[in-house]
Amino acid sequence: MQDVPPGRFPPLHLDHIPAMLVRVLKVLVSTSETQGDMAGDFTWVPDGELVARYGIVCQDERPDGGGCGCGRAFAGLTTHKATTSAMVIEVDMTETTWRAAVHTTLFDTGWATHMASDELADVIDAMAAADLHALEDLPAGTVVGRRAWNDARGDVVDEMVIRRKP
User: Residue 61's CB: how many other CB atoms inside 10 A?
Assistant: First the structure.
């Protein structure tokens, strides 16, 4: 497999094409609402910036939220900084546009340079499943947090925690 050069998009998996054409999409954005309600809260991401969950966490993360913080953080897709709270909103955006934003941030932060194009497409598919598809049943205005850790087998367990309902 050839690596994808910077500025190019990896092949997209065709099973997601119908969902990609939807014009109103539920996404996560950074919010300062509920910041400070949980021990260890932090935010370096401006309110309203698109955020996502990366599917990797360090070995120090624990199910109780202890550790360095990577298992509690959402990543800002523009600033590449982190926050522990995010809000579900509905936007006029396609899934393809969201995936392009994730693709860009993975290149900007250097993650994509370590993957073949099919691996990168798999990572973006997993991020879409973890975030976009997990938001389908949550109403806009819901504020969420995150708990992620590695289980005994080394697999990542990644859960969204509802912090406040609208």
Answer: 21
Instruction: Identify the burial level of 20 via C-beta atoms within 10 angstroms of its C-beta, where 0-12 means exposed, 13-18 middle and 19 or more buried.
Output: middle
Name residue, tokens 């400070």: 36
Nearest CA to 146 out of 61, 19, 46 is that of: 61
Tokens, residue 50: 């698109």
Other CB atoms within 10 A of residue 118 CB: 14
Task: Supply the mean pLDDT for the chain.
Answer: 85
In sequence order, the 6+-apart residues with CB closer than 8 A to the CB of 89 are: 26, 27, 28, 29, 140, 141
Predicted model pTM: 0.82
Cβ–Cβ contacts within 10 Å for residue 101, how many? 16
CA 42 to chain centre: 16
